[in-house]
Amino acid sequence: MQKVRFTNLLISFSVILLAMISSCQKDPALKDTNTEKTSLNADSATVSTIIATPGNYLASAGTLTIKIEDSTYTFDASRDSIAFVNVHVDDNNRYFGITAINKEHTMSFGISSAGFVNSNINSGIAGSQLLLNRDQNNPGLQYSLSKFAGQQDFGNINIVQYNQGNELAKGTFFTFLAKDDKANSPFYKVEGSFDLQLK
Predict the structure, then answer these.
(1) What pLDDT is recorded for position 33?
(2) For a 10 Å CB count at each end of the chain, is N or C smaller?
(3) What is the per-residue pLDDT across 8-17, written as a single tens digit (0 to 9) for each?
């Protein structure tokens, strides 16, 4: 169980790290390259491994939509940063997923699955997190992959199309996220869809 939790934390960290890096590349207001270099060097081994992995793409068009409780959240690649990532931890541990952060940096989302990505696959969820930083009068919300006792199925991601022509990735997913990591925490079914293009 500890190994699974560590792996989920590593994947969530990787996905959110890539979202932050890609958002800095897309946001023209952030131009301090010395600050970027300093923060990247803080954990250069991890960052280098993730960025150097073939198959990491920043979408230039398309949307990612997430439905949780009674709310729907949408990322638009024409203004927000949405990346499709492939993470190679070691020879036996490979993951793929989607990470996104909005232009205002008030909302981020990541979802990952173990294995190799391809068109027409249905794969189990390995990690997921939704972070919302609303405003100073409303505290932020953090939804994380539910770890409640006895759960075996964390949902799945269905890739209909991957890396074909201008289509980066298209598909749907569902998973279960909780507001904290206690065994008796209520969890919420999350459903989403994505249709991302490279050009």
Answers:
(1) 38
(2) N
(3) 444 444 544 4
User: 60 with 199: CB under 8 angstroms?
Assistant: yes
DSSP letter, residue 107: E
8 Å CB contact between 66 and 82: no
For the chain, strand residue ranges (E) read 57-58, 61-68, 71-76, 81-90, 93-101, 107-114, 121-132, 141-145, 155-164, 167-178, 187-197
The interaxial angle of helices 44-52 and 2-26, nearest 10 deg, is 70
Convert 174-183 to b/e letters by CB count within 10 Å (16 or more is b).
bbbbbeeeee
**Cα distance between residue 133 and residue 139, in whole Å:** 7
The DSSP H or E segment spanning 5 is helix 2-26
CB 65 within 8 A of CB 72: yes
Task: Check residue 135 and report its DSSP letter.
Answer: B
What CA–CA distance (Å, rounded) separates 98 from 86?
9
Instruction: Compute the mean pLDDT over every residue in the chain, rounded to the nearest whole number.
Output: 76
CB contact at 8 A, 70 and 80:
no
| Largest CA-CA distance found in the chain, in angstroms, rounded | 47
Work out whether the CA dihedral 187, 192, 198, 199 comes out positive or negative. negative
Tokens standing for 64?
């990612």
Q: Do residues 130 and 192 touch, judged by C-beta distance below 8 A?
A: no
